[in-house]
Amino acid sequence: MLKSRLLPLLLLSATPLASASPPDLVALIECRQSVSDFAQLAPIVADPLKAVALGWQPLPQTNLFMAEYRLNTPLTVFGHSSDHIALAGGTIVALLDLPDPRPLAAELALEEGVNTPEKAMYGRELVSRDVIDAMTGEALIESVILSVSNVKSHPGKTLAGCTYSLDLPAEDEVPAPAEPAIDAQPAEPVTAS
Predict the structure, then answer these.
(1) How far apart are CA 101 and CA 83, in angstroms?
(2) Average pLDDT, the chain
(3) What does the alpha-carbon distance between residue 93 and residue 158 come to, in Å, rounded to a whole number?
(4) What is the pLDDT of residues 127-183, one digit of tens each?
(5) Helix (H, G, I), strand (E, B) or coil at 49
């Protein structure tokens, strides 16, 4: 069993936004980035004025687990346009005007997690690699998971996006030689078997 590493601690150590280029939302949502790229969002989420400076309008919280934003400029992800994004922990999603997430999940070849008339959740791990935390020297597993789902708080919408995480290996696992976590290059998507 994997022990989850607290992503907010990593996010607090992220490079300040002023010295970094604006985050590539499309690449982040489509799982074409790494945990360190996702960490660029921490200063934005922590300071609404930084979000506004990027053209993000903070929205009232309709779901207690998500910070939502309306974008001044819509983006296109997975072939669909959206001006509405949400973040929750290590996850970033676009809210798409698709009443049923199942066709998009099939198009993206995602695995079924939950499929009931009320709830649909699909996902697939694209990246799983051993890394070393540059600050602590601790062996970790970087994971990037593509997902598509619906949520009761947003009827008629499909949430499509990516979860970035760093986890401790199971106690009985001996990690292979690893790459630095903080200095890692954008992850190359690799389909897990």
Answers:
(1) 18
(2) 84
(3) 9
(4) 999 999 888 999 999 999 999 999 999 999 999 999 999 999 887 665 555 555 444
(5) helix
Phi, psi angles (nearest 5°) of residue 36:
-65, -30
pLDDT band with cut points at 50, 70 and 90 for residue 21? confident
Rounded CA-CA distance 105/158 in Å is: 10
The encoded tokens of residue 26 equal: 């499309």
Specify the residue for token string 């005007």.
97
Q: What is the DSSP string of 102-167?
A: HHHHHHTTPEEEEE-SS-EEEEEEEEEEEEE-TTT--EEEEEEEEEEE--TTSTT-EEEEEEEEEE
The tokens of 192 are what?
């897990």
pLDDT of residue 163: 98
Q: Judge whether 34 and 184 are in contact, CB under 8 Å.
A: yes
> How many Å from the N-terminal Cα to the C-terminal Cα in the chain?
18
